[in-house]
Design brief:
Layout: H1 13-16, H2 21-38, H3 44-51, H4 55-61, H5 74-88
Helix pairs in contact: 2-3, 3-4
Length: 90
């Protein structure tokens, strides 16, 4: 189930961006999903659902916006590097 959100924008904004109203709405929905994912507020699956696309497509589109598909904080990154080191030492 989805809830509809109304956003007030200047009426000429889609035209200025050379987009149809529908394309603009889809892009804004995707941008919201990307930003919430980037902030760590949504999983990639939930963000894809918000964007109305598959998870695989969402992950591929992240590069377009300069967002990494895998977000580690410093502690998680350190743990992953240590785990990789242990694997190569075997």
């Amino acid at each position: 189930m989805m809830t509809q959100l109304t956003l007030t924008i200047p009426s000429d904004l889609p035209l200025l961006l050379k987009m149809s109203d529908d394309d603009f709405a889809s892009e804004m929905q995707l941008l919201l999903a990307v930003k919430l994912f980037d902030m760590g507020k949504l999983t990639s699956g939930k963000a894809a659902e918000l964007a109305g696309i598959s998870r695989v497509l969402f992950l591929h589109l992240l590069e377009r916006y300069g967002v990494a598909a895998i977000n580690f904080d410093a502690q998680e990154a350190k743990h992953e590097v240590e785990a990789a080191r242990r694997l190569t030492e075997r």
